[in-house]
Amino acid sequence: TTHEFLFGALAELVDNARDASATKLNIYTVKDASVRGGYLLCFLDDGEGMDANEAADIITFGRSSKKSLDSQLIGMYGNGLKSGSMRIGNDLMVFTKKGAQMSCVFLSRTFHELEDIDEHALEMELILRYSPFKTEAAFMQEFEHMDSTSGTLVIIYNMKLLDSGEPELDHKTNRFDILLSNPEGRDFDTDEGLMPERRSFRAYASILYVDPRMRIYIQGKKVRTKRLANCLYKPRIYKYSSSRFKTRSESEARKSQDEARNAENRAKEAEEQSEAELRRMQQLAVELRKDVQLKKQLAERKVKSLREPKTLNFIFGVNINNRNQDGMFVYNCSRLIKMYQKVGPQADGGVFCSGVVGVVDVPYLVLEPTHNKQDFADAKEYRHLQKAMGEHMHNKASQSSGPLHNRSVPLHNRSVPLHNRSGPLHNSPHYNLSACSSAEQKTNFPDGILKKEVKTHEQKEKDLEQEIRKKQEQLEKIQVRKTLK
Fold it and tell me: Which residue spans adopt a coiled-coil conformation according to this UniProt entry (predicted)?
């Protein structure tokens, strides 16, 4: 498994529930002294569930039915459930039902280590021996947790432990949350310590998606999910277009062209079959010809897209609640990939752009995430994106001015103290967005305009000299630290 950030492993299981069209996900722990760590970690959703064949595909790495270029589903590789769960614990059980079918998948590292067997039939005797359920009745009772006609229950146990013997995930300190027991020093974002999203899974789950549409419960308490862009003061949206994001498009164009050629070859083979199967093969040939046309059209569209600039929406605003919690939140197909990324003036240090938060949702066609969904595969093009985000952030901070008037900000854009939740809301200019009885509306952010500063040749040379001087000072500080050590 490649999940260095433990919450990233948990998020893989949340992604699966979202991709299964679940409307509700309940994450909870169950005490069990018989397993390592002393508890079971459970993920129960009301999604589409799986039949026996779909459940069997779980065991195969790299097998995914969600692979599609135009798909908005998060899972693309078919590895998330296995890699995520095996990062958290040694053993996994998946209970799932779809219609009248009920299935169970059992993945056990403990079994393989003890029995030293690579392949074995999935028998009830083994499940009862190596799972927390010691009777068939207790095993079947797990399906009763699914109230709807379909759904999935994932149970992870024999949790990974720290050197101290304590589980990596702390479910005791806060009875309504799951915390990191001992976060690593490199995860510290500021002098004050960890950002809440790096310490608390409840905080991380609240911003995991650009467009949250699934109710998530942790230890029985509902997570208050947030549309991050809607939580900022004076947000602005910038249209950013670039023709430099070609790597992903070129790869998909080549793939589509190969698929079109393969479909063409299959169609020709079908047309050349013997007369005995002529009628059946003719029908198959017609279907394959349709497939050829679709793939050719897709390939042509992708080749054409190489010449078209890719447009992204950068949304910038100010985090007025915690000015020290700033940076870029980069999503891919609505799923959070990078958070608190310092770009532009923030990366240079200082107070300029302090408190400015940016949000961007990058399509799969523009940048491909890594398998663990914690970074992007093409580092060069991601650096180009960071540079563009830094320029737009500088522009946003330069243009922002004016005092904060609390009633000028819509209710969904601000935090309202409990003692101040009554009053003349109708006096607000955003009354239609402030009424809890109103249906949720898509927020239209004011447009921002990027105004690039035109520098003379002398100014550019001066800036370059300052940058070189700054790097030299940083290098000298590093050398002093090494000398002191």
Answer: 450-481
Q: How far is CA 41 from CA 1, 90, 94, 208, in A?
A: 18, 12, 12, 19
Q: Determine the pLDDT at residue 311.
A: 86
Kindly state the tokens that stand for 29.
Answer: 């722990």
In order of 46, 126, 441, the CA distances from 215 in angstroms are 10, 35, 18
For residues 358-379, give the mean pLDDT.
Answer: 89
DSSP code per residue over 48-98: ----HHHHHGGGSTT--TT--TT---S--SS-HHHHHHHHHEEEEEEEEEE
- Is residue 89 within 8 Å of 160, Cβ to Cβ? yes
CA distance 49 to 47: 6
CATH, range 6-226: 3.30.565
Q: What is the distance between the alpha carbons of residues 328 and 340, in angstroms, rounded to a whole number?
A: 5
* CB-based contact 323:354 (threshold 8 Å): yes
Please identify, in words, the CATH class of the domain defined by 228-242+310-453.
alpha beta
The distance of Cα 229 from the centroid of its chain, to the nearest Å, equals 16
Measured in degrees and rounded to the nearest 5, phi and psi for residue 436 equal -65, -25
pLDDT tens-digit readout, 190-229:
544 678 999 999 999 999 999 998 999 999 999 999 999 9
Say which amino acid occupies 21: S
Per the CB < 8 A criterion, the answer to whether 338 and 329 are in contact is: yes
Of 399, 466, 407, the closest CA to residue 434 belongs to 407
Calpha distance 396→353 (Å, rounded) = 9
Please state, for a pLDDT cut of 90, what percent of the chain lies above it. 35
Per-residue pLDDT tens over the stretch 405-461: 444 445 454 444 444 444 554 555 555 655 666 666 777 888 888 877 667 778 888
In angstroms, the Cα distances linking 7 to 108, 128, 280, 415 are: 21, 30, 52, 26
The DSSP 8-state label assigned to residue 441 in this structure reads -
3-state secondary structure at position 33:
coil
